[in-house]
Records
---
Amino acid sequence: MTPTQPLFPEIDSIEAITKEAVLFVRDNCPNGIEVGFSGGKDSICTAKIMELSGIKYSLVYAFTGIEPPEIVRFIRNHYPQCQIRVPKRTFWRSLTTNVPPSDRLRWCCTLLKKDNHDSVLGIRSEEGSKRANRPRINHWKGRTTYHPILYWKEWQVWDFIAENNLPYPKLYDEGFDRLGCIVCPYHSEKTGKLHALYRKRWPFMFKRFEREIAKLYQKRVSQAKTMAYDSPEAFIQAWYLDDSSRWYAK
Ligand code: SF4
């Protein structure tokens, strides 16, 4: 059996999951809604589901300034209707006053990606334990997010893209199975392949990150702060290896 043959065609086939996802958004967002669009494969499917549903929707991309430039180009070329939302303070500017982001303190996600609108998101439970526990309709801090493709498997995502002849970023063909911010505490050296691929493909982004961290480190030392690591280089190595590396000494 090939991986693209559904086990239960009546519920697993591309036709069946498409119908189900379209009904889900029609039932839950009949009056129109914003779609958080990342330019990745899951977002591409979600945008198509919205189009098929006939519901009024708008695509919004949260620009971080630390994403692959290819993604922004892809969105501009293939989704010109997508609004690219640029934050008031960029990641680099915020890094001059914050501690470096970490797995426990993801201030950049909050600052650059979160908004207060209800929205449809293309998250999938396969992508990690946090997402696996998310409900399909999530109410959080006065905001509701809807996840029409939450239970789709990766093969279904790719089959849906192929069946609908949708464009997708060619970075996937180069081995990037997930696309997002280039310097991110989520993909450290510990997580392996992705970090190595990112460093090889976009070394300039890592160089800038290391430069900014060194400046921030020196600034804090001059303010008589007690740092957890002896040098910015030692911190950076720890950050690349361990999502929870500390900045200040306890
Ligand atoms: S770098 Fe990582 S934690 Fe920060 S905004 Fe990007 S995805 Fe979120």
---
Amino acid sequence: MANSKDFDTRYELREFPFANGADGEPTPESLAALDAIGFGFHESTPKPEARKRKVNELIADEAVLLGAYVRKPQPGSVDETWPAGTFSWFPKALSWGDGTSINTQAISDVTVRPTERRRGILRRMMTQALERGVADGYAIAALTASEGTIYRRFGFGSAIRERNVVVKRAKALPFLAPTSGIVSVVTPEYLVDGVARQVFDRFDERSIGSMVRNTGSWPLVLGTLGRDGEPAKDTRAAVHRPADGEEVDGYVTWRMVEQPGGQTGIEIIDLVYATDSAYLSLWEFLLSIDLNDVVKYNRARLDDPIVSALGDNRAYDIEHEEDHVWLRVLDLPAVLASRPFAVDGSLTIAVTDALGYAAGTFRLEVTGGRGTATKLSDETDAAGADLALDVADLGSLLLGAVSPVSLAAAGVLQAADPAAPLLLRSMLQTPRAPHGITFF
Ligand SMILES: CC(C)(COP(=O)(O)OP(=O)(O)OC[C@H]1O[C@@H](n2cnc3c(N)ncnc32)[C@H](O)[C@@H]1OP(=O)(O)O)[C@@H](O)C(=O)NCCC(=O)NCCS
């Protein structure tokens, strides 16, 4: 759509929290938005009780819906009630892996009806949402993307990558080092009563890049609800306890799946661990299950310790690698003050930002592992700075998974002195690869 006037003639933007009415039932506008989102993501139409549950999950997550509504819908079209563009956000903590976190404006449910695409709905919704995010005090926005080329133009950078891996049983065991602790098979219901959340909280605290889960994710990963709204009949579960303790420090849920070529596979649904020992033991357990050829995991981290534990490292195949969480810095000084640093140092950083929020030249001083960023100028003084980059690439660097040295080699980060990206890499270094197991 050529201009803003055309957009406003055709669409009206409405923003509201998902809500129940005075009768305790979801409001019609909440249900219509839910249906539009489901259509956008090719989901089957849920039963009435599932729609109600989903709205209540979104209420629990404090989700706000931004919808683009067609002002003059065609008779009989869903546009009469559904928004043609959907967009939501909610608060979600992002862990720095040292027990601290930053609150993100977590963006989700981005869909535009095929009949209305490429008329600027996404651009308008994103612009309005980020403006609102800044007004509400968010220093950073986050999302997970269905395609890799949509969000950079809005200042988001891919900050974490993850892998789909397949481990072949025949070559995997024994592990090179002994595992410890006790693995027990449990029912998925055993995990529901606090056990899973307690383990997740410990995982989240130690894992830089981990994000708090949506309310609606829990029943799915624990198998208490399948996609059809009924309890999943195929989900199995096990827990790990340390040899000297009773508290569960890891759990896994999985299902059996047919593999190409008549093979049988275990597909890990959820694998959460508060210790390295729990992670290793649960993998060993899965690889020891008979009547099965491979174990598949679609959330593997890039520094997966299993590779170094396997009896034959060729048991480990990477099937696919993809971006996971994308980050968008809105308030640069606030984000850098929140993050812990591995090494002290100071650097001048010039940032471009088409939407303006993080544009300027900043001095980052890190002392005792804590940083202070001071704005030197509203201008992006690339020539006078140690490093110059776009806000999207700053988002990529932020967790420490993407190296400034790689970005310099890729030509998207400029540094006259090669020592500057090396110093920033050391400053941003993390004890283990940034990793998250939360999709939203
Ligand atoms: C992706 C989607 C949301 C885009 O919505 P839209 O209203 O057509 O996008 P806009 O017209 O506002 O386009 C905004 C910009 O993004 C670009 N863009 C839009 N969709 C894109 C895509 N799939 N890939 C790459 N670029 C895309 C446009 O070219 C435009 O660029 P510009 O403003 O720099 O010129 C829409 O096609 C959709 O609903 N797809 C299916 C669901 C989906 O993938 N959702 C994303 C979930 S993370």
---
Amino acid sequence: MTNVLISGASVAGPTLAFWLREHGFHPTVVERAPSLREGGYKIDIRGAALDVVGRMGLLEDVRRHSTDMQVARFVDVNGRQRATMSAQLFGGREGDDVEIMRGDLAEILHEATKGDVEYIFDDSITALEERPDGVRVTFENGPARTFDLVVGADGLHSNVRALTFGEESRFIHDLGHHISIFTVPNHLGLDRTEMMHPAPGRSVGMYSTRQSTDAKAMFLFTSPADPYDRRDVTQQKKLLAKIFADLGWDVPRLLDSMWDAPDFYFDSMSQVRMDRWSSGRVVLVGDAAYGPSPASGQGTSLSLVGAYVLAGSLAAAAGDHAAGFAAYENDMRPFVEENQKLAASNLKGMVLKSAGQIRFQMGMLRLMPHLPGKDRMIKRVTEPIRKAATAITIRDY
Ligand SMILES: Cc1cc2nc3c(=O)[nH]c(=O)nc-3n(C[C@H](O)[C@H](O)[C@H](O)COP(=O)(O)OP(=O)(O)OC[C@H]3O[C@@H](n4cnc5c(N)ncnc54)[C@H](O)[C@@H]3O)c2cc1C
């Protein structure tokens, strides 16, 4: 039996644990947070990833937790509605695609694995030492242990990647924008509605999903010129307040709520690009290896598919982990590249550069339902996403 240590219990980690266990491996998951991290933002599952979730027998459960978003409304500085569109089209979803809160998905994946996978919360790997018989792992809190393989499923700022491959600045590519998202009171009384207020170089959103009593505020903006410390939350909040200080609509109220937000998130919109995803007995999966950025809308799907392919490739390689890692990389890389390409073009529509571009976009959205070529125009938005999301065949292992 191969003992595998997985760092990170969000999407990629528990999915990998599920499939490794199915193939007869013995996975252990270590998560830095004291318990499963709840909430977060809404994420999409589409294309090949739906097939993976279906094979896990979790599709019904995932659908039951769908956000059920109905509509996106674009408002001006005075809160006057300028355009609307269906939430499905706004999210670039079609057909069976599902939108769910990241925390709900993590919970479903944890529930499906916790019975026979060892989860260690409130701990983190501090050192990895390759030995002939495996990897000696030292932890912040628990005693050192030896595992046959170690997997980094610990996200954009992966700890395992830093310990194995070095400085993250070599792999993280800033796409020129930042994103901040946090929970706010639902003072607009939104029900499965997304509000968007576009401004030149900036965009503010607020939404509330089915079942939630509060709302999320989302701020997108061209990367700040002022440098900031990634660990200094107060400095980040001050920066956000400064960048959005002159906007109208509900922005002042959202910024007021920011100071008490329990889950303030602030980061660059970045992609992880690496020449290889494994070194010796250590391998990366999900955002840690090939995070496509929130702008791609495909991070979760890549994590789900990547975890399935990695577990299957290791099983097919029957004990030769190097061959398993090579097969995983060979199958996943073209799929990853297709999906990473989505981010740059999506960003162009998410943050508009000038007032003229905003007026044009609002006008087009208002006109679209009445245009003879509307289906063709919609397809132009959804087709590249659908193509990228299905650019891999899910094999049986
Ligand atoms: C604001 C925002 C919006 C997004 N929107 C979408 C979307 O619409 N569609 C989509 O598909 N994707 C979206 N994403 C991306 C998606 O959330 C990620 O791609 C996906 O969650 C990646 O899963 P993961 O398991 O690889 O990493 P993560 O979800 O980042 O999880 C990493 C886990 O590792 C843990 N961890 C970190 N460090 C350590 C450590 N030292 N030791 C142990 N554990 C550690 C973390 O606590 C976390 O639980 C969005 C992301 C953000 C930030």
